[in-house]
Amino acid sequence: MAITNALERGHKVTAYVRSPESFELRHELLSVVVGTLENDEAIERAIVGADAVAELVGSVSEGTERILAAMKRHGVRRLVAASACSVSDPIDLPDFELSLLVSFVESRRPENIQAIRRTAAIIRGSDLDWTLLRIPVLNDRPGGGAMAVGYPGYGEVTIYLSRADLALRC
After folding, report:
1. What would the 3-class secondary structure string for 87-111 be?
2. Structure-derived torsion over alpha carbons of residues 90, 96, 101, 104, reported in degrees to the nearest 10
3. pTM for the whole thing?
């Protein structure tokens, strides 16, 4: 849906997909590059000529390193990357509900939390113009709700977001 929104706004989009058979979208402004996060040549083809990169994988640090390296080689400075609400920021204030969620996930899947945080650290350590989308828990509620943007602990953001609203605003 985010790709559709970009295309409807007149942006040229290159979608980097692993399984082209499951990617059915077609549009005159859309190019599709098939590859994996281990395929440097395909990553290069997807990034060359781009103004910006939206990396929506979230927690594959080796793939992120490859994407960042290709961006640097091709002079692409802008990165918007998916992350998770378990990645903290110095501006965050304590948030009880978020702390409970992160503690729960960390107790069940510590390797997932570590991977997401490692990927965020790689992005933050780059010299790119980056934005981390610290995505909360996604649900299947209908879109159309207000999507709060901000930092935990200020009463602006919640730990839930509909997939439809995320797609509409990305």
Report:
1. CCCCCCCCCHHHHHHHHHHHHHCHH
2. 110
3. 0.87
The rounded percent of the chain whose pLDDT value lies above 70 is: 96
Could you tell me which CATH number the domain at 2-169 has? 3.40.50.720
Residue-wise pLDDT for 114-156, tens only, equals 999 999 999 999 999 999 999 999 899 888 877 778 899 998 8
Q: What is the CA radius of gyration of the chain?
A: 17
- What mean pLDDT do residues 70-81 have? 96
Contact 27, 7 (CB under 8 A): yes
CB hemisphere CA count around 96 (13 angstroms): 0
pLDDT at residue number 162: 87
As a whole number of angstroms, the distance between CA 162 and CA 28 comes to 29
Boundaries of every domain in the chain: 2-169
Q: How far is CA 115 from the centre of its chain?
A: 14
* C-beta separation of 18 from 63 below 8 A: no
The position carrying tokens 């002079």 is: 75
pLDDT at residue 59 in the model = 67
Helix (H, G, I), strand (E, B) or coil at 76: coil
DSSP 22: G
